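Researcher: Go.
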Amino acid sequence: MRLGTVRIALRAAVSAAAERRRRDAGRPIALGRLDSQSQEPAGPGAPRLARESGSWPLPGWRATVARAPLELAIFAVLMCDTLVTVHADRVLFAKNSDRDPNEAQLLDWQPRRAYAPGALLQCTWLTIPQAPATYAVLLSRPFWMWGAEIGANEHGVVIGNEAVFTRDVPAATGLTGMDLLRLGLERGATAEQAVEVMVRLLAVHGQGGGCGHEDRGFRYHSSFLVADPRGAFVLETAARRWQAERVTRAWSISNGLTLPGMVEESEPMRTRLSACRLRRGRTLAAAESAHHVGDLMRALRDHGGVGHPRYHLLNGAMSAPCMHAGGLLAGAQTTASWVAELGPDDVRHWVTGTAAPCTGLFKPVSVDVPLDLGAAPTDRADPSSLWWRHERLHRRVMRDPARLAPLFTAERDALEARWQVQPPGPRTAFAEGDRLLEAWTSRVARADGPDARPACVRRYWAVRDRRARVPR
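Model: Structure:
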């Protein structure tokens, strides 16, 4: 069957599904109420975690379900994987942020601040009241957003978020999941407080607004893993509804709702296209067996049990945690990675600061040690940016990873193993990382050869390279 015929048939199937959903529009949502035995709220409208789920209609607000038309949304899918392991003496956390390939992320240090009464805060799409004070945070955020995909605060709280696809149409405006993540870090001194902050703001402002880079109108709801040195919570949402549970041993989230009270909210077509069940099987197994940060670094570099990406015609290499874009219907690329070890007396964070953990180097960072990493990246290739300097290596290696990656990965792995035993200071680590990045890029360039990827993947990346003005 020719490619054009495949696309026409798939779009027809999607349109038929969307029409069935439009016929179902207007059915009232069953709205939950706060449990009468819940503890007193921490603030106006804020539930305690004794109440594990809820939803709040605004005064005079009547919700209706408008089932999501999928003609466009199914062709834009942004993925992630987040996992956590709770030990008696510490908590391990890891996340891959998977987004559009040219959507560079930056490491953003924000200090503790105090604000005057009545101050306002401009989030990605919405202006809300500012808190009297915010905590110092380190964020990994797409260059154009106020919110973040991953982050930590000065109290050892760390959060990762996921897109989830639910039966409710995401609102045209509201707080994005990335906004909620940053707000939880800025206003929550513990994981529990951060969850309370997020569900309170969800109740008041709702979630919505465009979340994509290539398709700025692409919208979704969110789930989160929230951890601190004492434990972790999973928080899942659908519109203003939510459910939170404490993690007792290990958990992972991979773009599909997982809690028993939320799974039925899933929109099946996009959830299946995301390959989240396949990825969660691997990340949950990794979380359950993880004892050290190195175990989670390996989990984030997993290509599905093989040494290099395997591409599917429809969604690229989306079935493994280390994600590589290149599908006809959906494409996402790991654009940032983070691992944390949270102990009561010692909190350590490790980040790549780049795309593709399989070609990246995990370096130690600290919330209270800001670094000058050069120019803030955008969606245009820029050699003064760490993120784009690494793209010279990453995009060249991906032409033939089975042959080119072994030229430097053993050296990188040995360095990371030494650093995990005796971590250098962040400035020293990033300076060493820059030196090695230049050396590895030159080594790979000298060994360059034909592009071994499928033709559709080569075409996909040729388009992204032209858009970013990547030098040939």
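Model: The two ends are 33 Å apart (CA to CA).
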